[in-house]
Design goal:
The complex is a heterodimer. By secondary structure, chain A is α/β, with parallel strands linked by helices. Chain A is built from eleven helices and 15 strands. In chain A, strands 5, 6, 7, 8, 9, 10, 11, 14 and 15 form a nine-stranded mixed β-sheet that branches. In chain A, strands 2-3-1-4 form a four-stranded antiparallel β-sheet, covered by helices on one side. Chain A starts with 7 loop residues before the first helix and ends with a strand. In chain B, a hairpin with a 3-residue loop joins β2 and β3. Classes of the chains: A alpha/beta, B alpha+beta. The interface between A and B is large, with 37 and 36 residues.
Chain lengths: 319, 180
């Protein structure tokens, strides 16, 4: 039915997208997949939760939710995640939620922490950490051992980060209210770093339709500049052989492959293979040629992964 | 950017906190301090954090803009320690002073009435700290007894046992009301 409209630009306009977005979707994906993406963005994403073993064993929480007639589905490769099929209770306000037995979290946003794979006892930095979905996930993977330094520039957002850490029973984290671009001033060297960078959010239109028209192409370049600075400074405070995961919930090459291509010129990191599903990173876009190793990065397109769009890449520092 | 003062608790502050826990919940409850240090965040509210020694070492190296660390257990008000949500959860395994409620209104910052509670198997006095749980022993928070346990059988069922305080982090509903 959608195809009958014939004109993808017309469809994009009807749905409220800025024209430049449709142009680049067509360049990135071609006509058929652009239509699929636009159609997917009009759907309602099923709620998903991450069961929090820091507070309660996963199987026990699952049992408690089943007692409340919540119907859930397991998710392949994400044993801590459940897709909510049906729930007679408000899933974001139950007593179990308030006790931190689980949290609401998009499925694809579980990948950055899993790919970083922090170990018990390591010193980890989580940059631009609020509201803390990934921070609390890192703590869960580390079984509350080791130390996480969570950096957040906004004092208001520190409040929501604090609330989530407390609710979820995280004990191994220090929140520092600072601009992560200045991380070198902390004087610490980290085993691993997660940089889920501030971004234009074009991968999450399915959950925030305002993004269809809220960011211009100029905004992308501002984000690009910030992302390059954050990543460059993060690499400076990584130990030799330390690992860093860079991710965004943006589909824009300027915020992803172009950031990496620029940073790789001036820093000594190599891109690592990752065991996860998704499309490979781009080799080129419009007039830009990207670093050849970026095919090891992964792009999760919303319509293909049935979730939020993500870009993820893992690097190892080699001094 | 707002500057926060995050510092190690003074000896006096440590005594206030530890004495409060000992007096309210007994010596056993002070096990929560094992291998932990107390830190203070100064501000309009003086917040108290329980920090594992391992984290403590890293905090000693960072000297700026720490906003939060470890577990927020309560706050200090005019030389009195107020145990709050997460502090009371830590105490839970070490105390009998637990009130089990049949309803959820405490999670909305509302009062608990005598008729809302399951039968009590311990004695308490007016003003004692009591930890609140609900169905399946899920933790709800903490409150102060408005009447003693010996009065419970002799007062109307709509007598307030524990006052709900919407603007204080005493019940877990606070995470929805004020957390974001």
């Amino acid at each position: 039915m959608v195809e009958d409209l014939g004109d993808v630009h017309k469809l994009g306009k009807e749905l409220g997208y800025l024209p430049y977005m449709i142009d680049r979707y067509l360049s990135l994906l071609g006509e058929e997949e652009t239509i699929n993406l636009l159609s997917f963005n009009e759907t309602t994403l099923a709620q998903s939760i991450r069961l929090n073993s820091l507070r309660n064993p996963i199987e026990k929480t699952e049992e408690l939710l089943k007692q409340k007639q919540v119907i859930m589905e397991h998710v392949k490769n994400l044993p801590e995640a459940r897709k909510i099929i049906e729930s007679p209770i408000p899933i974001g306000a139950s007593e179990e939620y308030l006790n931190g037995y689980y949290t609401l979290q998009g499925l694809n946003s579980l990948f950055p922490s899993k790919i970083l794979n922090p170990k018990e006892g390591e010193l980890i930095a989580d940059l631009a950490a609020a509201p803390g979905g990934k921070t609390t996930h890192l703590a869960q993977i580390m079984k509350n051992k080791g130390t996480i330094i969570a950096l957040e520039i906004s004092a208001n957002r520190c409040r929501s980060l604090k609330s989530n850490l407390a609710r979820m029973g995280v004990k191994n984290t220090i929140i520092v209210n600072m601009d992560a671009q200045n991380i070198v001033t902390l004087g610490l060297k980290f085993d691993k770093i997660l940089l889920d960078a501030p971004c234009s959010g074009s991968g999450i239109i399915v959950t925030d339709s305002s993004r269809k028209s809220s960011k211009t192409i100029y905004d992308l370049f501002n984000y690009h500049k910030l992302q390059v600075s954050l990543l460059t400074n993060a690499i400076k405070v990584l130990k030799n052989q330390g690992e860093i995961v860079y991710s965004t919930c943006s589909l824009e090459p300027e915020e992803n492959e172009l950031v990496l291509t620029e940073v790789l010129k001036s820093t000594s990191v190599r891109i690592e293979e990752m065991e996860m599903v998704g499309d490979n990173g781009l080799e080129r876009f419009q007039t830009n040629e990207f670093h050849p190793d970026l095919i090891k990065a992964k792009r999760l397109y919303p319509h293909k992964s049935c979730g939020e769009g993500f870009f993820i890449v893992k690097m190892v520092k080699q001094e | 950017m707002i500057k926060f003062t995050f510092r190690r608790a003074t000896n006096i502050e440590e005594s206030l906190v530890k004495n409060h826990i000992r007096v309210e919940f007994g010596n056993k409850a002070t096990q929560i301090f094992f291998q932990k240090k107390l830190w203070i965040k100064d501000g309009k509210i003086i917040e108290v954090f329980l920090v594992h020694e391992r984290l403590n070492d890293v905090m000693e190296e960072i000297n700026e803009n720490i906003y939060f660390a470890g577990i927020p257990i309560g706050s200090l008000w005019k030389n009195e320690f107020q145990l709050e949500i997460e502090g009371s959860l830590l105490i839970l395994p070490y105390t009998e002073k637990i009130i089990k409620v049949k309803t959820n209104q405490f999670l909305y910052g509302k009062n608990i009435f005598v008729e809302n509670i399951e039968p009590i198997k311990f004695n308490f006095n007016k003003g004692d700290c009591l930890i609140i749980t609900g169905k399946n022993s899920l933790h709800f928070g903490i409150g102060k007894a408005e009447i003693g346990s010996e009065e419970i059988g002799n007062v109307p069922s709509n007598t307030i046992l524990i006052k709900g305080l919407k603007n204080k982090p005493l019940d877990r509903g606070w995470y929805l009301r004020k957390g974001n």
